Amino acid sequence: MAGTGSSMLYSFLLFIATLSLQEFIGNYQETCGVRTGWGAVILAEVFALVAAGTVHRVSITTCFLFSAALLYEVNKLSGVMISRSESRGKRY
């Protein structure tokens, strides 16, 4: 049986992998004109929390906290990138 620390790491990596896979699917959907939203993020979080829950309740908490921190940073970075691209478009 895996230790609590390694299982938390595996569930966090599962969250990132699931989110990346859904990002790939989301890019395909956007080329077709359909937008993806927070539903994909919530689905990836549920997968990761279920995987973490198979080991220990504390793993669920730590996986959720680290995933929330990662989502906050990615969302903040995305906002910065969008504002930069909009400001470049307004100059010309």
Automatic annotation (TrEMBL):
Keywords: Membrane, Signal, Transmembrane, Transmembrane helix
Gene Ontology CC, one term: membrane
Bilayer topology: Multi-pass membrane protein
Subcellular location, record wording: Membrane
Superkingdom per UniProt: Eukaryota
Pfam family, one: Keratin_assoc
Residues that span the membrane, as ranges: 46-72
Main location: membrane
Segment forming the signal sequence: 1-22
Similarity comment text for this entry: Belongs to the KRTCAP2 family.
Protein name (Swiss-Prot/TrEMBL): Dolichyl-diphosphooligosaccharide--protein glycosyltransferase subunit KCP2
Lineage: Eukaryota, Viridiplantae, Streptophyta, Embryophyta, Tracheophyta
